[in-house]
Amino acid sequence: MDNSALNDSAIKPFWPCAPTDVGLAGGSLGSLEAQHKIMNVNSSFRVEAEAPLQQSPIAHWLKKRRGFLLMVALPTFLAALYYGLIASDVYLSESRFVIKSPDQKRSQMSTLANLVQTTGMSGGHEQTSEVLTYVRSRDALEALEKNISIRGRFSTRKADFLSRFPLPFADSSFESLFKYYGKRVDARIDTETGTATIKVEAFTPQDAYIINRELLDLSEALVNRLNSRAQSKGIVEAQKQVEVATQRAKTARIALAQYRNAQALIDPGKQAGGALEIANTLIGERAALQAQLDLMHRLTPSNPSIPALRSRINAISVQIASQDSRVVGNGNGIASKMGGYENLLVEQEFSTASLTAANAALVQARAEAQRQQFYLERVVDPNTPDTPLLPKRFLNVLVVFAAALCLYFIAWMFMIGVLEHAPED
Question: How confident is the model at residue 301, as a pLDDT?
Answer without folding.
Answer: 82
